[in-house]
Protein backbone atom coordinates (compact mmCIF):
# COMPACT_ATOMS: atom_id res chain seq x y z
CA UNK A 1 0.00 0.00 0.00
CA UNK A 2 1.78 3.11 -1.17
CA UNK A 3 1.74 6.07 -3.40
CA UNK A 4 4.20 5.92 -6.27
CA UNK A 5 6.87 8.37 -5.08
CA UNK A 6 8.51 8.66 -8.51
CA UNK A 7 5.20 9.72 -10.07
CA UNK A 8 4.67 12.14 -7.18
CA UNK A 9 8.00 13.77 -8.05
CA UNK A 10 6.99 13.97 -11.70
CA UNK A 11 3.70 15.63 -10.70
CA UNK A 12 5.66 18.14 -8.64
CA UNK A 13 7.84 18.85 -11.68
CA UNK A 14 4.81 19.37 -13.89
CA UNK A 15 3.25 21.74 -11.35
CA UNK A 16 6.53 23.67 -10.97
CA UNK A 17 6.70 24.04 -14.76
CA UNK A 18 3.14 25.43 -14.75
CA UNK A 19 3.93 27.82 -11.89
CA UNK A 20 7.35 29.09 -12.98
CA UNK A 21 7.96 28.04 -16.56
CA UNK A 22 11.71 27.72 -16.35
CA UNK A 23 14.58 28.54 -14.04
CA UNK A 24 16.59 27.02 -11.24
CA UNK A 25 14.72 24.72 -8.89
CA UNK A 26 15.86 23.20 -5.63
CA UNK A 27 14.68 19.81 -4.44
CA UNK A 28 14.98 20.03 -0.68
CA UNK A 29 15.24 16.87 1.38
CA UNK A 30 15.63 16.45 5.12
CA UNK A 31 16.56 12.76 5.18
CA UNK A 32 19.56 11.68 3.16
CA UNK A 33 18.76 8.02 2.50
CA UNK A 34 14.97 7.74 2.51
CA UNK A 35 13.81 5.67 -0.48
CA UNK A 36 10.56 7.63 -0.97
CA UNK A 37 12.30 11.00 -0.85
CA UNK A 38 15.00 9.84 -3.27
CA UNK A 39 12.32 8.60 -5.68
CA UNK A 40 10.46 11.94 -5.46
CA UNK A 41 13.77 13.68 -6.24
CA UNK A 42 14.38 11.35 -9.19
CA UNK A 43 10.87 11.90 -10.57
CA UNK A 44 11.18 15.70 -10.28
CA UNK A 45 14.65 15.71 -11.85
CA UNK A 46 13.61 13.37 -14.67
CA UNK A 47 10.68 15.64 -15.49
CA UNK A 48 13.14 18.42 -16.39
CA UNK A 49 15.98 16.31 -17.84
CA UNK A 50 15.37 17.41 -21.45
CA UNK A 51 14.52 21.05 -20.65
CA UNK A 52 17.66 23.13 -21.17
CA UNK A 53 15.93 26.18 -19.66
CA UNK A 54 15.58 24.45 -16.28
CA UNK A 55 18.19 23.40 -13.77
CA UNK A 56 17.46 21.20 -10.76
CA UNK A 57 19.76 21.19 -7.76
CA UNK A 58 19.52 18.73 -4.91
CA UNK A 59 19.83 20.11 -1.40
CA UNK A 60 19.79 18.28 1.92
CA UNK A 61 18.83 20.34 4.93
CA UNK A 62 19.79 19.44 8.47
CA UNK A 63 16.92 18.54 10.74
CA UNK A 64 16.46 20.82 13.68
CA UNK A 65 14.69 23.89 14.87
CA UNK A 66 13.18 26.43 12.54
CA UNK A 67 16.27 28.59 13.12
CA UNK A 68 18.58 25.76 11.98
CA UNK A 69 16.52 25.37 8.80
CA UNK A 70 16.36 29.16 8.30
CA UNK A 71 20.18 29.34 8.57
CA UNK A 72 20.49 26.54 6.03
CA UNK A 73 18.15 28.38 3.66
CA UNK A 74 20.10 31.63 4.14
CA UNK A 75 23.25 29.82 3.03
CA UNK A 76 21.43 28.15 0.15
CA UNK A 77 20.18 31.48 -1.23
CA UNK A 78 23.62 33.05 -0.76
CA UNK A 79 25.18 30.33 -2.91
CA UNK A 80 22.22 29.98 -5.32
CA UNK A 81 20.44 33.37 -5.42
CA UNK A 82 18.63 32.61 -8.69
CA UNK A 83 16.49 29.76 -7.27
CA UNK A 84 12.90 30.46 -8.27
CA UNK A 85 11.25 27.24 -7.11
CA UNK A 86 11.58 24.77 -4.25
CA UNK A 87 10.14 21.28 -4.05
CA UNK A 88 10.12 20.06 -0.44
CA UNK A 89 9.96 16.27 -0.63
CA UNK A 90 8.69 15.95 2.93
CA UNK A 91 6.31 17.61 5.35
CA UNK A 92 8.49 20.59 6.32
CA UNK A 93 7.15 22.84 3.55
CA UNK A 94 5.47 25.12 6.07
CA UNK A 95 8.88 26.01 7.60
CA UNK A 96 10.30 26.81 4.16
CA UNK A 97 7.18 28.88 3.39
CA UNK A 98 7.64 30.86 6.60
CA UNK A 99 11.25 31.52 5.66
CA UNK A 100 10.31 32.68 2.15
CA UNK A 101 7.68 34.99 3.61
CA UNK A 102 9.96 36.41 6.34
CA UNK A 103 12.73 37.12 3.83
CA UNK A 104 10.38 38.62 1.21
CA UNK A 105 11.26 35.90 -1.30
CA UNK A 106 7.82 34.30 -1.58
CA UNK A 107 6.71 36.47 -4.50
CA UNK A 108 9.75 35.20 -6.47
CA UNK A 109 9.99 31.58 -5.33
CA UNK A 110 7.30 28.93 -5.86
CA UNK A 111 7.00 26.28 -3.15
CA UNK A 112 5.57 22.78 -3.51
CA UNK A 113 5.49 20.55 -0.45
CA UNK A 114 4.46 17.04 0.47
CA UNK A 115 1.96 15.91 3.09
CA UNK A 116 -1.31 17.69 3.76
CA UNK A 117 -1.01 18.16 7.48
CA UNK A 118 -2.46 21.13 9.36
CA UNK A 119 0.64 23.35 9.20
CA UNK A 120 0.91 22.86 5.44
CA UNK A 121 -2.82 23.54 5.06
CA UNK A 122 -2.25 26.83 6.91
CA UNK A 123 0.71 27.55 4.62
CA UNK A 124 -1.53 27.08 1.60
CA UNK A 125 -4.20 29.36 3.03
CA UNK A 126 -1.71 32.16 3.82
CA UNK A 127 0.01 31.85 0.44
CA UNK A 128 3.33 30.66 1.89
CA UNK A 129 2.95 27.36 0.00
CA UNK A 130 1.71 27.16 -3.58
CA UNK A 131 0.77 23.49 -3.70
CA UNK A 132 0.79 20.40 -1.48
CA UNK A 133 0.91 16.83 -2.74
CA UNK A 134 -0.78 14.41 -0.37
CA UNK A 135 -0.29 10.70 0.01
CA UNK A 136 -3.44 10.09 2.08
CA UNK A 137 -1.86 8.49 5.17
CA UNK A 138 -5.22 7.91 6.84
CA UNK A 139 -6.55 6.14 3.76
CA UNK A 140 -3.37 4.05 3.52
CA UNK A 141 -3.73 2.98 7.15
CA UNK A 142 -7.43 2.14 6.81
CA UNK A 143 -6.92 0.20 3.59
CA UNK A 144 -3.95 -1.73 5.00
CA UNK A 145 -5.96 -2.88 8.03
CA UNK A 146 -8.91 -3.74 5.77
CA UNK A 147 -6.69 -5.82 3.46
CA UNK A 148 -5.20 -7.69 6.44
CA UNK A 149 -8.74 -8.43 7.65
CA UNK A 150 -9.73 -9.73 4.21
CA UNK A 151 -6.64 -11.92 4.05
CA UNK A 152 -6.57 -13.35 7.58
CA UNK A 153 -10.22 -13.42 8.64
CA UNK A 154 -12.10 -13.78 5.36
CA UNK A 155 -9.28 -15.80 3.73
CA UNK A 156 -9.57 -13.74 0.56
CA UNK A 157 -6.73 -13.26 -1.84
CA UNK A 158 -5.47 -9.68 -1.79
CA UNK A 159 -3.54 -7.80 -4.48
CA UNK A 160 0.26 -7.72 -4.33
CA UNK A 161 0.27 -3.93 -4.62
CA UNK A 162 -2.27 -1.22 -4.04
CA UNK A 163 -1.33 2.25 -5.21
CA UNK A 164 -2.87 5.33 -3.67
CA UNK A 165 -3.82 8.20 -6.00
CA UNK A 166 -1.72 11.35 -5.90
CA UNK A 167 -3.73 14.23 -4.47
CA UNK A 168 -2.80 17.76 -5.53
CA UNK A 169 -4.06 20.51 -3.26
CA UNK A 170 -4.05 24.26 -3.85
CA UNK A 171 -5.45 27.05 -1.71
CA UNK A 172 -8.68 26.86 -3.67
CA UNK A 173 -9.43 23.25 -2.67
CA UNK A 174 -7.59 23.00 0.67
CA UNK A 175 -10.62 23.84 2.79
CA UNK A 176 -12.67 20.94 1.48
CA UNK A 177 -9.82 18.43 1.28
CA UNK A 178 -10.50 15.26 3.23
CA UNK A 179 -7.92 12.52 2.65
CA UNK A 180 -10.21 9.72 3.80
CA UNK A 181 -12.21 8.57 0.78
CA UNK A 182 -13.55 5.11 1.51
How would you describe this protein?
By secondary structure, the chain is α/β, with parallel strands linked by helices. The chain is 45% helix and 18% strand. It has helices at residues 5-20, 35-47, 66-79, 93-102, 118-126, 137-152, 171-174; strands at 23-29, 54-60, 83-88, 110-114, 131-134, 167-169. Strand 1 (23-29), helix 2 (35-47) and strand 2 form a beta-alpha-beta unit. The chain starts with a helix and ends in an 8-residue tail after the last helix. The model has no long low-confidence stretch (mean pLDDT 88).
Global geometry: globular
Rg calc: 17 Å
Number of helices: 7
Strand order of the largest sheet: 2-1-3-4-5-6
Main structural class: alpha/beta
Tell me the fraction of residues in β-strands, as a range: 15-25%
Query: Alpha-carbon distance between the termini?
Result: 15 Å
The parts where pLDDT drops under 50 for at least 5 residues are none
Strands, count: 6
Query: Which sequence of SSEs, written as H and E, runs from N to C?
Result: HEHEHEHEHEHEH
Mean of all residue-level pLDDT scores: 88
Q: Sheet bearing the most strands, described?
A: 6 strands, mixed
Helix content class: 40-55%
In short:
With 182 residues, the protein is an alpha/beta fold. Helix content is 45%, strand content 18%. It has helices spanning 5-20, 35-47, 66-79, 93-102, 118-126, 137-152, 171-174, and strands spanning 23-29, 54-60, 83-88, 110-114, 131-134, 167-169.
Which features characterize this protein?
182 residues; alpha/beta; six-stranded mixed beta sheet
Summarize the topology.
Elements: H1 5-20, E1 23-29, H2 35-47, E2 54-60, H3 66-79, E3 83-88, H4 93-102, E4 110-114, H5 118-126, E5 131-134, H6 137-152, E6 167-169, H7 171-174
Parallel strand pairs: 1-2, 1-3, 3-4, 4-5
Antiparallel strand pairs: 5-6
